[in-house]
Amino acid sequence: MTVYFEDQKYIVENDLFEIFSFHSDFRKAMIEFENQIADLWEIFVRGEEADFKGNVFKNLLRTYVREKNVEL
């Protein structure tokens, strides 16, 4: 993950998963980024993506992202 500030916005990106987010508020940029990771997790780890590319992506997610149950 790379984070930088440009044009009055925080930019958060991850080349491996090809996702990014940006916002003038750092916390909101991170929340959007985390939501994208969560969406990918739901699709590729919990979902039924059966093709080869989906399985490769699923394994990458499992390697680099951990699921954690949090009580709110």
Layout of secondary structure:
Layout: E1 2-6, E2 9-14, E3 19-23, H1 26-46, H2 52-64
Antiparallel strand pairs: 1-2, 2-3
Describe this structure in words.
This protein is of the alpha+beta class and 72 residues long. It has two helices and three strands, in the order βββαα. A three-stranded antiparallel β-sheet has the order 1-2-3, with helices on one face. α1 crosses α2. The chain is elongated, with a radius of gyration of 14 Å.
Comma- or semicolon-separated keywords:
three-stranded antiparallel sheet; single chain; 72 residues; 3 strands; alpha+beta
Q: Rounded to an integer, what's the Rg over CA atoms?
A: 14 Å
Main β-sheet, spatial strand arrangement: 1-2-3
Can you write the helix and strand succession as a string?
A: EEEHH
User: What is the strand content?
Assistant: 15-25%
The tally of strands reads 3
Residue share in helices?
A: 40-55%
Class by alpha and beta content: alpha+beta
Number of domains: 1
Question: In angstroms, what separates the terminal alpha carbons?
Answer: 26 Å
Largest sheet: 3 strands, antiparallel
So what's the overall shape?
A: elongated
Summed over residues and divided by their number, the pLDDT gives a mean of 85
**Residue windows where pLDDT falls under 50 for at least 5 positions:** none
Annotation field: number of helices: 2
